[in-house]
């Protein structure tokens, strides 16, 4: 029994491999043919190889469930998602533009707030933002970059248009899975990489390191760069290790670091204290420094903000960068791009209703069964209501929450997210996907990963792609159609 | 090198060494029992003693039957030194320093964990046991070999080696102690005394090397001399102490640790171990173990993270 792509039903969605007429798209032709030629036995074998690789490589993520922690192997589908190089180059430009504008926006908010004075961004929004950090006002991080690493979530709608769904500017995760997915695929289907022109992605760790090193306050040959993790219980711990390892940096926990009287940061080593220049922190703002934020944080380092504000250490991303990652600010990104760069957005925003606005709020409440309603400051798919898939009771609870704190809620039309063939047993069946590319900004240049992490809603019909909510992933191939 | 990382490397290596040692002891005991006649049988009790767990074992087990003892030694959840628990501890510790350990090593530790866990019925069955234990031993060798060949031989490597060596010295002393203590020496067992000493040597992978080095037949005094005093056999206690000293010499602030190793070494060297009769041998091994624990404490004091939230368990026993 071999795969017959003619029998694959796109069910009216935009499928990224097969078009509405049942034809394979240009960038996926060799891939589709390759899979069609595999016997059921070969397929089973390939999946077993992938499963084993994932298990042996220890690619896991952690799920919290009723107070206990479970380490799960990362659900992975062996049909890669392909995107044509031409299209990708346009997306890349759009992402660079977006992140450039967002960094200017954050820097402005912590300094002159021109965008507010010019009436483009409402002051009221800033005042209510839970991610605006008063402690960061007036601070000048190197090269005026706040969001050094941005993970933007992209989706396609029913027509295939690419939209930005949200920007993650605090501690975006997932890049290690992007890299690991590729190494799994190379183990499983080496011959496909020989036959096709798939752009490589291995460069990311060195680009990340170069960017981090460029932020060092001490000009020297080898700055001390560390990755600060909350520890082994964090759901992204695997990634923290992975990145530290790939960059050859120390992976530190809060207890490994200390701020001395000179307001510099040091790590405790077997030979004594050693100065740290750059901290790639994977801890949320509020846990960073118990002297300034949550006083009972065990994860952070007392005095860290002091060291940072004096310019003795670089924090990546900068504290307070999350102010631009909230879902209400998101709605203003087109205006933000226009204001700082005087350009029109190259990538579309999903139309977003802000419950802060009375009229829009009314609309949301009346049409809640058709909309996706999101709390402004939650990530990981928590607190999300998908109107068409919710019960009346759930809708009612959500409406109550909106009424209590309208600023905290936005809503977007339900998008018919695109699908990619994904194995359901031995038959490929469409599953909804999104894409999270990662964008690195050093102030000198901006780099975008080639493709990104494709997340898949593994359950039939589901739209939720978060790993914590039953999502899985696929390798993402940017294919050079012209070289094919 | 971060203090926390140095400490974790030390423990990862200790746990793997422990798992390997326990696997070897079980395998050898298994072989020995097949050789001994039915009435003459030391059973599995001594193995529980080697890991110092008699009391804890008896809380949940009525006797030292093969199936109960093996289950306890291989996968016993309530046994902190069971092979599975040692591997779990190694894996959990290794996970906190995955950035430091070479990928291949992490993958090997990880697959060893899955192997030990998923094939336990093999280990518990008479037929599958040999292959199961052999695989664990080989896997431990692979891990240490890969480390030796791929990791920078810097301070981190010193802690890896130290963890392994101190555990080895500890295990050698325990095996010598329990095995010589429980040796059956009555008239009926006389013909089997020899194979029991051979089995002791085998528990330490020492038989072949004993033959080469000592050039005499296997007998009590020489076996004890070899296991305690050999300067060339890598599992002898003196060898391990020498090794510990040369490991820490390049470290900074190593005066205290060198002094305490030197003391233990000089004392051992000066001891006429051949003459130690059973009860005295036991007491002397006790002394050695106390010294090893003290060496661990000085090492921790000198290099490991000194914070109230120490969670690592101390050496067993």
UniProtKB/TrEMBL annotation, chain A:
SUPFAM superfamilies, alphabetized: Glutathione synthetase ATP-binding domain-like
One Pfam family cited in the UniProt record for this chain: CP_ATPgrasp_2
Gene3D superfamilies registered for this protein in UniProt: 3.30.1490.270, 3.40.50.11290
Circularly permuted ATP-grasp type domain location: 80-457
Superkingdom classification of source: Bacteria
UniProt xrefs under PANTHER family: BLR5612 PROTEIN, SLL1039 PROTEIN
UniProt protein name: Circularly permuted type 2 ATP-grasp protein
From TrEMBL, chain B:
Residue span(s) of domain DUF403: 1-304
Name assigned to this protein: Alpha-E domain-containing protein
Superkingdom assignment: Bacteria
